[in-house]
Amino acid sequence: MLAAAGSFLNTALLSGIKLWRQVMKKAIITEKAPKAIGPYSQAIETDNLIFVSGQIPLDPVTGNVVGTTIEEQTHQVLKNIQAILEAAGSSLAGVVKATVYLADLNDFAKMNAIYSQYFPQPFPARAAFQVGRLPREVKIEIEVIALPGKLLKN
């Protein structure tokens, strides 16, 4: 009898956890940005934040790297992030934190000039790092955390 009750409670608990994950954590998927190429989501939305996975300068249709310069690649990365946020009902105006990974920190000023064209003030908090290597030998990867559209001020 106790074993059956324990089994029932265990099943109920696991069902509750599964439901909680579905309610609290929603995958954002759009064809307007590159598909995830591994065990990750383009973005995950919770009740009050959207976590966008690191984006590199890939064309959403072909999957090929776009551009050879930091400027071209930064534009593509930010377009991909914008598409993901729009699919979640948010926008670049909702970004509160950005992390920029650069293959060469000497590209910082050029990246910054493009980056500043995409974000309205107040600008998101940001960190930028030079890293040893990025996927597909690209020059830049950016990940962001944003507010869902329902929390953005009109």
Explained architecture:
It is elongated, with a radius of gyration of 19 Å. A hairpin with a 4-residue loop joins β2 and β3. α2 runs parallel beside α3. It has a 6-stranded mixed β-sheet with strand order 1-2-3-6-4-5. It is 34% helix and 21% strand. The chain is α+β, with helices and mostly antiparallel strands. The longest helix has 23 residues.
Can you tag this structure with a few keywords?
154 residues, six-stranded mixed beta sheet, alpha+beta, elongated, 60s Ribosomal Protein L30, Chain: A, 3 helices
Topology overview:
Elements: H1 2-24, E1 26-28, E2 43-45, E3 50-55, H2 70-87, E4 95-102, H3 108-118, E5 125-130, E6 140-146
Helix pairs in contact: 2-3
- Helix and strand string, N-terminal first? HEEEHEHEE
* Integer count of domains: 1
CATH class value: Alpha Beta
Structural class: alpha+beta
Major sheet details = 6 strands, mixed
CATH architecture: 2-Layer Sandwich
Widest beta sheet: strand line-up: 1-2-3-6-4-5
Low-pLDDT parts are none
Strand residues, percent? 15-25%
User: In total, how many beta strands?
Assistant: 6
| Overall radius of gyration | 19 Å
Q: Report the span from N to C terminus.
A: 58 Å
CATH topology category name: 60s Ribosomal Protein L30, Chain: A
How many alpha or pi helices?
A: 3
| Overall pLDDT confidence | 91
CATH superfamily: RutC-like
Q: What percent of residues adopt helix (DSSP H or I)?
A: 25-40%
Tell me the overall shape.
elongated
